[in-house]
UniProtKB/TrEMBL annotation:
The lineage of its organism: Bacteria, Bacillati, Actinomycetota, Actinomycetes, Bifidobacteriales. InterPro entries: Cbl-indep_Met_Synth_N, Cobalamin-indep_Met_synthase, Met_Synth_C/arc, UROD/MetE-like_sf. This is 5-methyltetrahydropteroyltriglutamate--homocysteine methyltransferase. Zn(2+) binds at H652, C654, E676, C737. One of its GO terms (molecular function) is 5-methyltetrahydropteroyltriglutamate-homocysteine S-methyltransferase activity. Residues 5-321 form the Cobalamin-independent methionine synthase MetE N-terminal domain. Catalyzes the transfer of a methyl group from 5-methyltetrahydrofolate to homocysteine resulting in methionine formation. It comes from the Bacteria.
């Protein structure tokens, strides 16, 4: 029998982001729900057929979602908080969107569910909220409908669901705390999955894939027991349909033995991340005779071509242990762009090194074919020879000047003088800010008009002078508005930037850019990361002219706005021929040049965003420092260590999930940090309190991912909550990040309320 091929999941937003456009159209009232449904069905059909044409055996269904697969799972299990049910929408889709984005209208006013990063990706899931006494039951036919839809097209798919263990570990109570896994809850959840299994059996499914990425995390007491309890119950309901337990983003060596004994028909292992540990575990404990190992060899998180020789070696290693080996994508392809087709801006010589989702399908098939080939057949295989040629020789021309600079760094380059406490005093005098200073995270709404002007400039329809004048007018208006509502530290608004990473990449040597390589970030939002192609250095000053212009237009302090090295790397597609540490150092030196130029241009406050620093924290605690923080934190210090004591360095981070690394955040030695906090819990404040956190901090006081406008009272309450845990001298007042994604209509009234709330609290101090 030939080696089976399996795809864990496929991008759903569409080659040209059709899903994004139609859903956003629906939100704006430009099209109806029927149009959304029909586009969605077209996309599903297209994606299934593409996989079928590539010869994939196990094609996923239910990997589609209008917003998020975790939210779909919550709805499937009837985990819908009452406040959303009370809105009493006619269509379940509207309830789904209210949970995802909040709702403010004639039916009521509710905030959205919290949103968090999906493991180490830049994809965000909605955190299910299980209310006390929640009735867990099968509440949706979505997985079955999509299975039947594919079947009607003649494609027998492999339905994919987030597994019960990952669901329970990621869900929270209505108090935002971890769930207690009492018997009732666990049994109820297991019963729904058993029902799903039975149903798919009736519908004639051959395989069902349950996603359990949470298994790659360190285990807390009771975790393995919980997993066993759930699956013993679920697998007892198994009739014909085979169950594939899929894991990814790391290894499951610590539970492999248990998993292997439970009787799964398939176990999916990530052989990119966690390769050694997974292979060792398989070798050590063997593979049950009825179990197939799904070897995750095609990387679902990079854009580079697969090295077939390496993948075949991995399959061979597994075949030493068991004959039952299938090949698979290491994770869902959700995290890679659609296709390299149409990327005409990249020279063919370079483009041949890339494989996006569609190209990865062919790779998967070719690896499977080669895995079945004899040695003689391999020798004459053109596919293998062509692949080998991609990896022979060096791809990039190195820049010796960059290497020299990196090699010349000394320990002093990583230390800013004097100590922070001393600096904070000097800065207080130099900047003359009130207590609870107000500011924003940098960007202001990128309106249609702004995007249209940029498009015109890009297409050569307007001159650089005309474009610059337009941007200056935007900056002027933005400054005036900020002055009017009374913000303390102003920003220029980032109108000249398409994106906080791509913009910098475009002004650095060593990057490549795509036209259409979008990847879903949350809901309908996508990002288009640039590609690190060679050694990185700064070609010329990037932001200095804009910041200097903005400062010249106001007497307030104007904050300079940069993206930090760790974030640039994490939100780009990194090289794989040198380490991340090495690439980050190159980036840090480039941004350091920019920091010093901003300071020389009279900018007194400089924010260096490390929005994505937390995101790539390794999933296993034992890896945190050695594999990441030990170089990521120093890289940040390298960026700002040479500024004057009175220059105030801010940083910003998305999501406040850093209770456990709070000291490392302090060790970045910034003067101020703002972070996104309003849509998650505020436990980080306890960590700040307990660790005697030295950096001044601005926890976001309102959620900007939702179009709703917070009241002054709401924000005031929030500030008091913060003041319970933090020294007033160290608190900044700012919203969450990402104002660029909002409209002016909600942004300005919200900020007015923010300033009013800060003033009201100040007056009572
Ligand atoms: N300065 C950026 C902005 O305000 C930060 C974005 C982010 O946090 N992701 O848009
Ligand atoms: Zn942010």
């Amino acid at each position: 029998m030939s080696t089976l091929t399996s795809v864990s999941g496929f991008p759903r937003i569409g080659q040209n982001r059709e899903l994004k456009k139609i859903i956003e159209g629906y939100w704006k009232g430009a099209n109806d729900l029927a149009a959304v449904k029909s586009t969605a069905a077209e996309l599903r059909a297209k994606h299934w057929k593409l996989q079928q044409a590539a010869g994939i055996d196990l094609i996923p269904s239910n990997d589609f979602s209008y917003y998020d697969q975790m939210l779909d799972t919550a709805i499937l299990l009837n985990v819908i908080p009452k406040r959303y049910e009370r809105l009493a929408f006619e269509n379940p889709e509207d309830t789904l969107f209210a949970m995802a984005r909040g709702y403010q209208g004639e039916k009521g006013d509710v905030t959205a569910l919290p949103m968090k990063k999906w493991f180490t990706t830049n994809y965000h899931y909605l955190v299910p909220e299980v209310e006390p006494g929640e009735e867990i039951k099968l509440n949706s036919t979505k997985p079955f409908d999509e299975f039947n839809e594919a079947k009607a097209l003649g494609i027998l798919t492999k339905p994919v669901l987030i597994g019960p263990y990952t669901f329970l570990k990621l869900a929270r109570t209505d108090q935002a705390t971890e769930l207690e896994y009492d018997k009732g809850l666990v049994n109820a959840v297991a019963a729904v999955y058993a029902e799903v299994l039975t149903k798919f059996n009736e519908l004639g499914a051959e395989w069902l894939q349950l996603e359990e990425p949470y298994l790659v995390l360190d285990k807390e007491p009771g975790d393995v027991e919980l997993f066993k309890t759930l699956y013993t119950k679920i697998l007892a309901a198994k009739a014909g349909v085979k169950v594939l337990l899929n894991t990814y983003f790391g290894h499951i060596a610590d539970v492999y033995e248990t998993v292997n004994l439970l009787g799964f028909d398939g176990i999916g292992l990530d052989l990119n991340e966690g390769r050694e540990e997974n292979l060792e575990a398989v070798a050590k404990y063997g593979v049950a005779s009825n179990t197939t190992i799904f070897a995750g060899v095609i990387n679902g998180r990079n854009i580079w071509r697969n090295n077939y020789a390496t993948s075949l070696g991995l399959v061979d290693a597994l075949k030493q242990v068991t004959p039952n080996v299938a090949v698979s994508t290491a994770s869902s392809l959700l995290h890679v762009p659609f296709s390299t087709e149409g990327e005409t801006g990249i020279p063919t010589e370079d483009l041949k090194h890339f494989a996006f989702a569609v190209e990865k399908l062919d790779e998967l098939k070719e690896v499977a074919v080669l895995a079945d080939a004899t040695e003689d057949e391999k020798k004459v295989s053109e596919a293998l020879a062509a692949n080998q040629a991609l990896f022979d020789g060096t791809r990039v021309a190195a820049d010796p000047a960059v290497a020299d600079r990196v090699n010349g760094l000394t320990a002093d380059d990583y230390v800013r003088q004097p100590a922070r406490e001393e600096r904070q005093k000097l800065q207080r005098e130099a900047l003359g800010l009130p207590l609870l200073p107000t500011t924003t995270i940098g960007s202001f709404p990128q309106t249609k008009e702004v995007r249209a002007e940029r498009a015109k400039f890009r297409k050569g329809e307007i001159t650089k002078e005309a474009y610059d004048e337009f941007i200056k007018a935007q900056i002027d208006a933005c400054i005036k508005h900020q002055e009017e509502i009374g913000l303390d530290v102003l920003v220029h608004g980032e109108f000249e930037r398409n994106d906080m990473v791509e913009y910098f990449g475009q002004n650095l040597n060593g990057f490549l850019f795509t036209k259409n390589a979008w990847v879903q970030s949350y809901g309908t939002r996508c990002v288009k990361p640039p590609i690190v192609w060679g050694d990185v250095s700064r070609a010329k000053p990037i932001t200095v002219a804009w910041s200097a212009y903005a400062q010249s237009r106001t007497n307030h302090v104007m904050k300079g706005m940069l993206t930090g090295p760790v974030t640039i790397l994490n939100w780009s597609w990194p090289r794989e021929d040198i380490t991340h540490e090495e690439q980050t150092k190159q980036l840090a030196l480039a941004i350091r040049d920019e920091v010093l130029d901003l300071e020389a241009a009279g900018i007194k406050v400089i924010q260096i965003d490390e929005a994505a620093l937390r995101e790539k924290l390794p999933l296993r605690k034992s890896d945190w420092h050695v594999k990441y923080l030990d170089w990521a934190v120093p890289a940040f210090r390298l960026v700002h260590s040479a500024v004057k004591p009175t220059t105030q360095i801010h940083t910003h981070m998305c999501y406040s999930e850093f209770n456990d690394i709070i000291r490392d955040i302090d060790a970045m030695d910034a003067d101020v940090i703002s972070f996104e906090a309003s849509r998650g819990d505020l436990v980080v404040l306890d960590a700040i309190h307990d660790a005697h956190f030295e950096t001044e901090a601005g926890p976001g006081v309102y959620d900007i991912h939702s179009p709703r406008i917070p009241s002054e009272k709401e924000i005031e309450d929030r500030i008091y909550e913060i003041l319970k845990k933090m020294d007033v001298e160290k608190v900044w007042i700012n919203p969450d990040c990402g104002l660029k994604t909002r409209g002016n209509a909600e942004t300005w009234p919200s900020l007015e309320h923010l300033v009013a709330a800060a003033k009201a609290v100040r007056a009572k101090l």
